[in-house]
TrEMBL record:
Its EC number is 6.2.1.1. The gene is acsA. The modification N6-acetyllysine is found at residue 614. CDD domains: ACS. It comes from Pseudorhodobacter antarcticus. This is Acetyl-coenzyme A synthetase.
Amino acid sequence: MSHPTQAALVYPASDDFVAGAHVNAAQYASMYAASAADPVAFWAEQGKRIDWIKPYTKVKDTNFTLGEVSIKWFEDGNLNVSANCVDRHMTTRANQTAIIWEPDHPDTPAQHITYAQLLENTCRMANVLKAHGVAKGDRVVIYLPMIPEAAYAMLACARVGAIHSIVFAGFSPDALGNRINDSEAKVVITADFAPRGGRKTGLKANTDAALLHCDDRVKCLVVKHTGDQTTWVEGRDVDVKAEMAAAAPYCSYVEMNAEDPLFILYTSGSTGKPKGVVHTSGGYLVYAAMTHQMTFDYHDGDVFWCTADVGWVTGHSYIIYGPLANGATTIMFEGVPTFPDAGRFWEVCAKHKVNQFYTAPTAIRALMAQGHEWVAKHDLSSLKLLGSVGEPINPEAWNWYNTHVGKGKCPIVDTFWQTETGGHIVTPLPGAIPQKPGSATLPFFGVKPVVLDAATAALQTETVAEGVMCISDSWPGQMRTLWGDHARFEEAYFSQYPGYYFTGDGCRRDADGYYWITGRVDDVINVSGHRMGTAEVESALVAHAMVAEAAVVGYPHEIKGQGIYAYVTLMNDVEPTDDLRKDLVKWVRQEIGPIASPDLIQWAPGLPKTRSGKIMRRILRKIAENDFATLGDTSTLADPSVVDDLINNRMNRV
Ligand code: ATP
Ligand code: MG
């Protein structure tokens, strides 16, 4: 049991946890120093955690200079990612479970897929791809539910050297068609239907609609998952399961260069049009495997559950590539946290004896609003560690997670990273770095964060600092380019603060050197000359007993420059009243100060979110500004109908 230092609210891990951890405080300090002082020597050693067909002799060749940006790691090494995730475990763990598949409905039995079965299924899928002309360098779009075939498809692409691009199963035909066209994919892999939360989405029908706008030669590989009837285009549509069953059970893997692309993945689109992030093979896999092992303190035999969708980078790095490279047992969950009831996550944790559990603040807040009785019903004694990703976790949600899920004995790793970074870049290592609720704490090995003044770009050299977060040198998991648009890559990430990789996020660094992400720089609010991150105001609102979730944006205000417009979702069964509104304003005043008190509060039954659960403040800003005509790219919204509700009930500006 950890005892927080009340004044500073610091939560160290228990002595037992520290004793068993891969990395303790002293090791973190010395390894971090070594990684910063001599990245070449450090990564030359770490690169050996995966198998190389041809070992590398060059470790790092990276340049952040605008106009010449180029990032290469292990560039003369050759490997195959699929062989690293599957074949290399065959001698030691062929009969160990690689993937536990937990279906949407709890009455459907879970599947335990061993490494031997994973190899066979990946090979069969690879042979199907080859039969349809897929070869090294070709693009394959994957539009599947969270089913084992999604893992087979990813690994099969990697095996034959094809580049996959996964599109969330919740996206529209338009979003799918755009990505097929942008990546010039040869094949799209989909399913008949995607069951989720007891409902079914017609993926095949969506794919048919998308393909109307694509090249006629694009093949459509269909996984008959639910078995419901769909349309069928002879000559174009392929029954994947039938062809897998008939295909040879082995397929050799292609020797790939470390810098050959592994996948393209479009960002969530929280701030604008999604960007086609490109990750390559060698550096990405080394970094995904290392962060998976160290951040989650994963040990052989543990059962690891990352609740993300494989359509998000978190699913790529921490459901598939990191865990499988490490020979882990990883859970793939088809469903949602609230189906058939708000205890589903905890039921699954108990059922599969999950050791590490990794989810997003949005899910924690949603479950918190349902009450902790749902957690108490299930045996969570197997849990050793909890994780959070996607946005800053509000201290209120952190405390609930710690108390009710972790029972005060599980370290919580608040992992800050991006599609672009491939893996965690600022995160507690649980045995080494005491947590502070709401802080992502310290950098991972080899990552050099800096704080720059947002306006002047001046490097903040004092420990205590505030500004934008940039990274001053490359790490192996970093993205290499934007698909087909290297100029946009340089422009988006290297032009605003020359010489640095710009994350787009604001941050604060405290006296212990801990980083606190304050939100997107685009979202910063300027009230009467005071710059404010959205995270702090939102956390104050969420700390109120009746508030489940809050999103805050600025809107033009005659006197203050910008006023604060808050969208507030109340806890279940709480009545929205004017008194409560006044109460909330008073509350924020007390928590932060008068400068942060909301000018307008709108009750929001739902907030516009990306499929990965991030609030799209750019849309909320438009609503607050009374500018509905140009909401921008909304193709990545999880539920577009919430926007109409918010527009209809918007508050009048003063
Ligand atoms: P787009 O770049 O298209 O706007 P996006 O940034 O939402 O989309 P992702 O790459 O999925 O797409 O999200 C990365 C962002 O998520 C980070 O830049 C940061 O704003 C936020 N984030 C992720 N993890 C954390 C965390 N632990 N703490 C704070 N913020 C986080
Ligand atoms: Mg982003």
